[in-house]
Structures are given as structure tokens and as C-alpha cells.
Amino acid sequence: MNFKEIQELLRLISRLELTEFKLKEGEFELSVRTKNFTSSKGGVPIMSPGIPAATFALPPAVSEPVGQAAASPAPQEVLAAPTPSGDSNYVPIKSPIVGTFYRSPSPDKGPYVKVGDKIETGTTVCIIEAMKLFNEIESDATGRIVKILVEDAQPVEYDQVLFLVDPKG
């Protein structure tokens, strides 16, 4: 299935106001969920269970994909890993998109944040590259970085925890 066919399919899904659509053709998988779909977390989950898989989030009345095709999904145990009991007091900073995680703005510059750094709401903590666009990810918490859970240049999934922040720090 080529990109133009995918776009036409997404337009049709939008027109029909479907909330969820899945297609599997050989090794190609496409899973679409619109904003009309509500999860238990209240967000729009973007999942890529197959290999290779392409996944898009489609808001109503939008005819172009706004998500990122996942080249190689992270292992399931990483995505579903429970938070250790000692980490329950920490606030997670999660990935809002699927893409590639980068700790610094460029290879020759230092990381945005390190373990022990104090951050405030709105502080840029990393970059996630999605479809050749570099998206600065800002903290939605104030506190001290206690853990960085993702390695530099590693693919990340939607809603994957990237950092743990101690709000008391």
C-alpha cells in the first residue's frame, strides 16, 4: 500500500466518522484511532503491535496522518513495565508522540537535562524526531530529574515514560 492509498483510506475513515480501523496486508499493518475514540487514560493511544507497523492518529475532519510510522516497535515488556514501588512518588514525563528520542539539541551539544537537574513546567527536556521533524518536549512537572528511562537515539512509543521527576526535589 503506497502513501497516496493510505491518504485516501484516511479520508474515507474520517468521512465515515469511524473511531477505530485496522488493516493487515501481509507484513503491513495499519491501525487508526480517531479523537472520537476514548481510552481509559482519556487520550488517543497510538499502538503498533505488528512488525513492521504504521500507525496514525486521525482527528475528525483531518485528511492527512498526524502520527509517525513506527519502524521497529519497542519490546512489549518495556511498554508495559510496571513502575517500581520506590518510584510511585515520582511524576513521569511521557512521550506525546512516536519517534526517536534525543537528549541533546545536536550531537556536539550537551543534554537538555541530566539526573539531578531541577526543572520547571515548560522546561525543554529532550527532542523527539518524528517524520524528519524535531519536536522539543517540555516538562509538565516541576521538580528534580531522578531517572532517565530512555537511551539517546532510541525509538519511543506514544505515552512511554521518558523521565521520572521528584516533585519534592
Describe the structure using short key phrases:
169 residues; mainly beta; four-stranded antiparallel β-sheet; OB fold (Dihydrolipoamide Acetyltransferase, E2P); 2 domains
Explained architecture:
The chain folds into two domains: 3-58, no CATH class; 76-166, RNA polymerase II/Efflux pump adaptor protein, barrel-sandwich hybrid domain (OB fold (Dihydrolipoamide Acetyltransferase, E2P)), CATH 2.40.50.100. The chain has helices at residues 3-15, 76-79, and strands at residues 20-25, 28-34, 54-58, 91-94, 99-102, 118-119, 124-130, 133-138, 143-148, 155-156, 161-166. The chain is 10% helix and 33% strand. The strands form three sheets. The chain has a four-stranded antiparallel beta sheet, with no helix packed on it. The protein has a four-stranded antiparallel beta sheet with strand order 8-7-5-10, with no helix packed on it. The protein has two helices and eleven strands. The radius of gyration is 17 Å and the shape is elongated. It has 169 residues and is mainly beta.
